[in-house]
Amino acid sequence: MKICVIVPIITKGFMKEDVRKRVGNYVRPDTVVDFINVDYGPASIESRYDDAMAAPFVVKKAEWAEKNGYDAVVVSCMMDPGVKAAKEALDIPVVGAGEAARQIAPLLGDNVVRVSPQLSVLELLENPEKAYKRLLENAKKALDEGAQVLILSCTGLTGMAEKLQKEVGVPVLEGESLALSLAQMFVDVRLSQSKLAYKTPPKKKRILPGFEE
């Protein structure tokens, strides 16, 4: 099985670590996971403006993945840029990091809270130690206010959930990792998005950079 993870930003520093280490126990050892960045778009996604800038190029990469033999696509951003459009364009499963975490979290507890280090996405890359410290502080505050399940606010925090969960004692969810698990499961059980819900777009002329062919 091959899963393509689309990183919907042009910044490539988040993928310094070994891919197998990043995906951890969320996919089987024999599942191939490839990460690719978009060719055009924002340096990070922190607004609807960034979301709109990234979305068409996420769809382009998703179409490329299907044509090149991938079995599923994951979009690694909690805002799910281009995810619904990609579901329309593709027959293979498409899973967004944000939707995966939102759907799974209520199965684990009633009061679900997204926690953030309250730093910009690029600051997460520059200073992960500071990000984790701030994340832990805000997680403890959320628990004091009644949170039962925590969702990490950004896929730039991927890799911090296990440590944070040990420190705070409640489920801590990483969207990217859960999206990978769901994508693998959908392929295993031969499920994909309904074409009644996500109808294939009609063919017509559309002019955007990278969409000429």
Commentary on this structure:
- The chain is of the alpha/beta class.
- It has two domains: about 1-95 and about 175-190, 3-Layer(aba) Sandwich (Rossmann fold); about 105-175, Rossmann fold, CATH 3.40.50.1860.
- Helices cover about 40% and strands about 15% of the residues.
- Strand 3 (about 70-75), helix 3 (about 85-90) and strand 4 (about 95) form a beta-alpha-beta unit.
- Helix 2 runs parallel beside helix 3 and helix 4 crosses helix 8 (about 175-190).
- The longest helix has 20 residues, at about 50-65.
- The mean pLDDT is about 95.
Q: Could you provide a short overview of the structure?
A:
By secondary structure, the chain is an alpha/beta fold.
Q: Give the CATH level 1 class of the largest domain.
A: Alpha Beta
Number of strands: 7
Per CATH, what is the topology of the largest domain? Rossmann fold
The low-confidence parts are none
Shape: globular
Beta strand %: 5-15%
**Number of helices in the DSSP assignment:** 8
Distance between the terminal alpha carbons, to the nearest Å?
28 Å
Mean pLDDT: 93
- Count structural domains: 2
N-to-C order of helices and strands? EHEHEHEHEHHEHEH
Amount of helix: 25-40%
CATH-derived architecture of the largest domain:
3-Layer(aba) Sandwich
Q: What is Rg?
A: 17 Å
Largest sheet descriptor: 4 strands, parallel
Oligomer: single chain
Walk across the major sheet and give the strand order: 2-1-3-4
Q: Structural class given helices, strands, pairing?
A: alpha/beta
